[in-house]
Amino acid sequence: MFGMADTDPTGGLWNWAVACPLDPDRVRGALAGTLERSVVPLEAEGDVLCDVYEVGGEFPTLVDVYLAPSRVDEATAASAVSVRLGAAVLLPDDSLDPSAYVLATPDGSLIAVHVDEIETDDGPERRNVRPATTGR
Question: What confidence tens digit (pLDDT) does each residue in 106-115 have?
Answer without folding.
Answer: 999 999 999 9
